[in-house]
Amino acid sequence: MCSSDLYTVQDFDLHDVTFTSINFGLFGNAGFLNGFNIHHNVMTEVAKEGIYLAGTPSNGVVSENQISTDIYPSVSNIAIEVKNATGLEIIGNVITGAFYACIATGGGSGVYPENNINVTNNSCSFAATTNVADGISVGGMNISIVGNTITGYRAYGIYVPGTAQTASGITIIGNTVQGGNGGAAIKIHALLADPTNGPANVTISNNSLIENYSVGGIIELRSLHGNTTVTHNNITAAEPRKESALIVKSPASVPSCSGNVIANYHPGNCPNQ
């Protein structure tokens, strides 16, 4: 599926296709996609994005796809990328050998507004060679990141970047982020130029953040608004590390931090833990 012209595609089902590609995998650009289901496809040796949905995708499901590669850089951009999306489910995909990111919305930098996005039970691992990868990078209104496994990131594990758009209602629950060597396992922040518009009403709970090396903290939160809850996360390593488990900077209100299990990291400065 490929076009540079505006078009509308509704109620389509793309499934059980196996292929290799020297460029994009599944590509939709500048059109209106509504009511779609992309599932159980197998993509190998994909040089760029595996599934790329720009334009205005809405009310869609991307599930149970396998995206892998034997070339370097593996997925040179983002394995599953969507822009300007509303009502999207990204479920149970298996991504291996990623180079830049596994799953991203908003162009990977929060440029495009997103609403009602669920990223659930995906598996994400990275190229054995040096990568610059985020695991899951999303933002917007009513964002749910639940039950995903991210292994070996080099940028951030789960990342909600600063954006001029409003971000609120962000739930990060039951994910496993492990073996990272770069930035935080979970990082959420406002734009440095606009700290009064930071993400609001954030819940980070019951995540397993294991054996991650980080330049700063394992969970880093900056300029968040509304209610911020950080509870019952497992932040552990096999031996003592220099990193802090939790770093909170410039909060607009006091976050609630309790019940976190922290082993072999410095506790950090999240209050009430």
Can you describe this structure?
The protein is 0% helix and 52% strand. It is mainly beta and 273 residues long. Strands 1, 2, 5, 6, 9, 12, 15, 18, 21, 25, 29 and 32 form a 12-stranded parallel β-sheet that branches. It has a 10-stranded parallel β-sheet with strand order 3-7-10-13-16-19-22-26-30-33, with no helix packed on it.
| Number of DSSP-assigned strands | 34
CA-atom Rg in angstroms: 18 Å
Termini distance? 50 Å
Global structural class: mainly beta
Instruction: Compute the number of helices.
Output: 0
Anisotropy-based shape: globular
**What proportion strand?**
over 45%
Largest sheet: 12 strands, parallel
Fraction of residues in helix: under 10%
Q: Which segments are poorly predicted (pLDDT under 50) over 5 or more consecutive residues?
A: none
- Mean residue pLDDT: 85
Secondary-structure map with pairings?
Blueprint: E1 8-10, E2 13-15, E3 18-21, E4 26-28, E5 32-34, E6 37-39, E7 42-46, E8 51-53, E9 56-63, E10 66-67, E11 78-82, E12 86-91, E13 94-98, E14 101-105, E15 115-120, E16 123-126, E17 134-137, E18 141-146, E19 149-151, E20 158-160, E21 168-173, E22 176-178, E23 181-182, E24 186-189, E25 200-205, E26 208-210, E27 213-214, E28 217-222, E29 225-231, E30 234-236, E31 244-249, E32 256-258, E33 261-263, E34 266-268
Parallel strand pairs: 1-5, 2-6, 3-7, 4-8, 5-9, 6-9, 7-10, 8-11, 9-12, 10-13, 11-14, 12-15, 13-16, 14-17, 15-18, 16-19, 17-20, 18-21, 19-22, 20-24, 21-25, 22-26, 23-27, 24-28, 25-29, 26-30, 28-31, 29-32, 30-33, 31-34
